[in-house]
Amino acid sequence: MNTLANDTFLRALRRQPTDYTPVWLMRQAGRYLPEYNATRKRAGHFLALCKSPELACEVTLQPLERYPLDAAILFSDILTVPDAMGLGLYFAEGEGPKFERPVRDEAAVKNLAVPDPSAELRYVTDAVRTIRAALGGRVPLIGFSGSPWTLACYMVEGGGSGDFRQVKSMLYRRPDLMSRMLDVNADAVAAYLNAQLAAGAQALMIFDSWGGVLADGAYQQFSLAPMRRVLAQLERRDDEPVIVFTKGGGLWLEDIAAIGCDAVGVDWTVNLGRARALIGDRCAIQGNLDPMVLMAGADQIRAETMKTLDAFGASAPGVGHVFNLGHGISQFTPPDSVAVLVETVHAYSRSLRQREGSMSLL
Amino acid sequence: MNTLANDTFLRALRRQPTDYTPVWLMRQAGRYLPEYNATRKRAGHFLALCKSPELACEVTLQPLERYPLDAAILFSDILTVPDAMGLGLYFAEGEGPKFERPVRDEAAVKNLAVPDPSAELRYVTDAVRTIRAALGGRVPLIGFSGSPWTLACYMVEGGGSGDFRQVKSMLYRRPDLMSRMLDVNADAVAAYLNAQLAAGAQALMIFDSWGGVLADGAYQQFSLAPMRRVLAQLERRDDEPVIVFTKGGGLWLEDIAAIGCDAVGVDWTVNLGRARALIGDRCAIQGNLDPMVLMAGADQIRAETMKTLDAFGASAPGVGHVFNLGHGISQFTPPDSVAVLVETVHAYSRSLRQREGSMSLL
């Protein structure tokens, strides 16, 4: 349909053979890059950067200029949807995201409605279109959203949290209310992701950043089921692959693989070989280097990167693996470390395939 | 040896049959209790409370006056050992623990030495003796320590951390230095726990609060192996059971069960039935209610508590299960909620055993 110069990422998500293991990094357009900080400064503040399609496009492409990454990801925030619901997203300097009007009671939940992506979230779909044009088919563009549960965490807590007391209080006291909120969130996320697809996103990722704080049982009910509801509503005309990433969800890989996604993101606590044995016949796997490895020297970065590629397993090396960090890249990462990482993923994963190729000739 | 009025907790840790499932709560002597806050106020500050054997004894016993808990746990802090190493532990108001002299370089690591528990940590063993006398054999007393890795996190970071950047940088850059530090920590923890045993602790718990932030592989090397080193050095004259609790360690239960502990603590992300199937033939299991359940009403607390007891499994109900939360109790917990929890654990677990008893008569 749309010709790509490099479709390795999409092929890996579909578990098709590739010449090497594709790599991109969560938060690859971020504060570790001086050029990102310069654009952000020009924008004035973080939200202005998100809300300008031109500037969002500019920072989306910056890491691709530096490194031969195999995918671009829409530059945006995971909290655009609740912002569009009217909760008043803002960023206090030096703190994380906050909402002016957190959702704490029944009345507030009942007031929630699915925002129209073509109105309140137009700046996002405009960014998708702008980025697609600027990419010119170099690599695929990933669209994304926070998961319904992760959005609910911020919406109820009103910001980040250490113990998730407010949102879990609502969950345990009023599961009916929590479910109602998650239904709205799921429908809002689905509409949002569909708008991104229509605008040109070639793959999607759902960031379930806070699914891992839930108890077994509660996770399935309050995070996984709403994500299934999202997936069921997606209109994927080109069979665009969807990645679901629950941070701290390593105990639930089989549950996640069953909701209809194409790939499961895993953090660094997961053994990639074990993950592949559990779900590799159904889903691709994305991950999972500890971002803090990038604080070490080049030799250690190479060694840990190779260890991660090896962990995925020797048979059919790398088929169904997308290399990534296990979480967003740290703002304190030296940019040169990323170059070492990307180069190692490409070179070493090629050599693994060649080794298997020559072995199969014996 | 020492006669106990209630040895249910010790029997459960040894996987012997019990009349009901024993229960205690991490941080059961804590800020949710008004009487604790009163004593703490009298002490002046938190560390003064830890360092006074009489006041530590007073707060240790407070929850036992309110609730029919099946174990007491020494009131202390997990950072007493690095404090005794001379790092200067202090608590800034409203913040977590901090160290005046964090361990950041080779020289600082090489300076570390195992403190003499009979000198710098005398206040802890005095507290153990005082509490044992005051308990008069009602229930067993648990001694505890932070794990070598968890101590290292605070020692290197100099306090709490969101990304563990400093300690992981040392780990990935200088694994030799990190291993040296962990060896000292392990030997210090072993000496500390042995002193607690000698003073009368009847069970031990190792809190590996931050093991779960490590990557698969790094966990086994930098958290589990040092805990194994601790266990190998313990002098358990009465076969005192040892519980190892890695928060976020649900993916490594079989590895943990193999290091020589009697019980494995699990947080709420773990399915208790699955944990039992994996390691129940070797270890007891402690856990795992989400502390935030206690923010709900009495009916929901009862339902979630029963669900937790049921999850452990119907066959030989409760054998080898110690009920606990999956993490420390929140300071915002209504004290009456704890009464509901403890009562439900006792009553419902008794009924499960009676049901099985009557079924086996059929």
Describe what you observe in this structure.
The structure is a homodimer of 362-residue chains. The mean pLDDT of chain A is 96. Chain A is α/β, with parallel strands linked by helices and 362 residues long. The longest helix of chain A is centred in the C-terminal third of the chain and has 27 residues, at 335-361. Chain A contains 15 helices and nine strands. In chain A, helix 2 (34-43) packs antiparallel against helix 4 and helix 8 (148-157) packs across helix 10 (175-199). In chain A, the strands form two sheets. Chain A has a seven-stranded parallel β-sheet. Chain A is 49% helix and 11% strand. Chains A and B meet through helix 9 and helix 14 of A and helix 9 and helix 14 of B.
Summed up, what is this model?
The structure is a homodimer of 362-residue chains. Chain A has 15 helices and 9 strands. In chain A, helix 7 packs parallel to helix 10 and helix 8 packs across helix 10 (175-199).
Number of helices of chain A: 15
Number of strands of chain A: 9
How far from one another are the termini of chain A? Answer: 39 Å
Specify the biggest β-sheet of chain A. 7 strands, parallel
As an assembly, this protein is homodimer
The geometry of chain A reads as: globular
By secondary-structure content and strand pairing, the structural class of chain A works out as: alpha/beta
- As a whole number of angstroms, the C-alpha radius of gyration of chain A is 20 Å
Order of helices and strands of chain A: HHHHEHEEHHEHHHEHEHEHEHEH
Helix content of chain A: 40-55%
Which ranges of chain A are low-confidence, i.e. pLDDT below 50, for 5 or more consecutive residues?
A: none
The mean pLDDT of chain A is 96
Q: Spatial order of the strands in the main sheet of chain A?
A: 1-4-5-6-7-8-9
Using a beta-carbon cutoff below 8 angstroms, give the protein chain pair with the largest interface and the number of residues from each chain. A-B, 38 and 38 residues
Strand content of chain A: 5-15%
